[in-house]
Amino acid sequence: MGTAESTKRKQKSANPSTAQKEPNSHTSMADQKDNIDDFKVQTAKHPNLGSAPLRPHSEQSKDRMSKRLSTESNGTSDGGVGSSTPVEVTALEESFRRFAIHGDTRATGKDLHGKNWSKLCKDCGVIDGKNITLTDVDIVFSKVKKKSCRTITYEEFRAALAELARKKYKEKTGEEAEAEVFKLIEGKTPVIAGVTRAVASPTVSRLTDPTKFTGSHKERFDDTGRGKGKAGRVDVVDTSGYVSGYKHRGTYEKKLNKLA
C-alpha cells in the first residue's frame, strides 16, 4: 500500500501543469457558453443580424447624406413628426436646405445660420448693392430670429425674404415682390469657393475692344476687329513700287486686262 501511495504522489508532482489546467478549462468552457447565450439573445432580438451583409463605408456615408435632405415630413414641411406620408418639398425649401447644410457636416437642414444666410442672398442675387446691401441682410436676419437663437427656421426664412422683397422691389405690391425674390432663390445651390464665373465688367470690355486701341496696338487689328497676325506685329516692306498714299493701286492692271 505504501508503495502505491508513493507512486501516486510522484505522478502528481511530475505533472503539476495538468492539475492546474483542469480548472482553467472548466472556466473557458463556461465563458464560451455565456457568449453563445448572449449571441442567441441578440439573434432573437434581430433575426436578420446574421443574414444581412456588411455594407461598405462609402455607401453608409451616402445614406447619411441622403437622410439629411430627406423629404419625409419630419422637419419644416407640413405633416409633423412621425407622419408616414411624404410631403412634397418646394424648390424654395430645397434651396433653403442646401444652403443650410453648406459647409457644416453636422447640420440637419432645418435651420440656417447667419453666414449661410448672407451667402444665399449674395449667390442668388438678392443683394444688388443699391436697394439691398449686406448690412440690410444682416439687420433683417437679426430682426426675424429669436433672441436666444443664432439660426432661423424655414418660416423665419420666408419672413426675412418678404422683408427684403418689399425693400428691393418698391414699385411692386407685397405679393409680387415676394414672388420675384422667390424666383431668384428657387432651385439655386451654393457657389463653391474656387470656381470662377464669367462676369460682365465694363473695365474688361474696354480693354478687350480693339476699336479703342491706340498706337502700335491698333495696327495689329483690321477694321472688323480681327487680328492681322504677323503683318500686325512685323513691319513688312512694300516692294510693289506704289507710294504709301496712292489710292488707285491695281487700276492700271485692270485696264490692260480689258484691252487684251
UniProtKB/TrEMBL annotation:
Its main location: cytoplasm. GO terms for cellular component: cytoplasm; microtubule. Residues 13-30 have a biased composition (Polar residues). One of its GO terms (biological process) is microtubule bundle formation. Residues 1-86, 209-232 are annotated as: Disordered. InterPro entries: EF-hand-dom_pair (IPR011992), TPP/p25 (IPR008907). One of its GO terms (molecular function) is tubulin binding. It is found in: Cytoplasm. Pfam families: p25-alpha. Residues 31-40, 56-70, 216-232 have a biased composition (Basic and acidic residues). Belongs to the TPPP family. This is Tubulin polymerization-promoting protein. It comes from Eleginops maclovinus. The lineage of its organism: Eukaryota, Metazoa, Chordata, Craniata, Vertebrata.
